[in-house]
């Protein structure tokens, strides 16, 4: 994924947005952005076209990765962003989008050698905008690492930890305090696309 983004013209400091429910592609894009110094921007999948459009414009997103569940919303706004590449993770992608998986499979598998400083920006999560427009909150690599260390210590994460990822990954509660710390300690993450009572109970039992 890192090389696919580089080949698309994404460079250090550029923003890559994901408009996805929970899925492995969400995590892959996050890690790829961290490797190349791009700023990862997760978008709430419940937002409507006008709200998503505002975030993409404010963030100056170079690439947007999306899925079928939000395709109808993306179709409304994609023409307003001629300089943004839209990648679908689905096999039956719309005509205006490229295939995420085709991009990744065609890209180099060589190691990425880009120097990342701890004070470089890593991610940008938007506020809910209850008192005005949503605001992009930037997090540096150092801050993300320290956050992971704190969560690992207090939640006692280790390589034997197994986390059920059912809270939305676009929110810092799951992204910063759950899945990323467990990845850093070598734990296991079981990712569910969305909350469903029967599926959650079955996953817990398994």
TrEMBL record:
UniProt keyword Transferase present: no
Any GO molecular function: medium-chain fatty acid-CoA ligase activity
Any one of the GO BP annotations: fatty acid metabolic process
Entry-linked InterPro entries: AMP-binding_CS, AMP-dep_synth/lig_dom
Keyword Magnesium tagged: no
Location of the AMP-dependent synthetase/ligase domain: 2-205
Keyword entries, A-Z: Ligase
Stretches that traverse the bilayer: none
UniProt cross-references to PROSITE patterns, sorted A to Z: AMP_BINDING (PS00455)
PANTHER family on file: ACYL-COA SYNTHETASE, MEDIUM-CHAIN ACYL-COA LIGASE ACSF2, MITOCHONDRIAL
Family: Belongs to the ATP-dependent AMP-binding enzyme family.
Protein name in UniProt: Fatty acid--CoA ligase
Source organism phylogeny: Bacteria, Bacillati, Bacillota, Bacilli, Bacillales
